[in-house]
Design goal:
The protein is built from four helices and no strands. The protein is mainly α.
Amino acid sequence: MKSKIINMAERMKDEEDRRLESLFAAEPIADDGFSVAVVGKIQRRQWVRRLSLPVAILAGGVMAAKPLFALIVSLPAALENLAGLALPFAPDAPLVLTAATLVMVLVLVSRILEE
C-alpha cells in the first residue's frame, strides 16, 4: 500500500524529471574493465602509503639498535667521569645530566604520541 504523498509526488513530475529518470535508468557504459583497473590502482597506492611509514620506522629502529645499545652501555662510565669533575655550579652533575636526558626523552615521546 502506497501513501498518498508518494502518489502525489509521482504525479507532479515534469518533463525534466522524466528525462533525468530515463538517463539514470540506462545501462552503464561498457569501458572494457577501465573502471576496475582504476579502482585497483587506487587501492594499491593506499596500501603502499599505509605500509611505508611502519616499514621505515622498523628499518630505522633495526639500524639504530646497535648504536643505542652502545650508548646505553657507555652511559654509566660517562656519568662517572662527570661525577669526577669538580664543578662549583653543579655539585651533582650525574643527577642533572640524567634529569636533562629524561626531560628530552619525555618531550620526544609526547611529540611522537601527538602525531
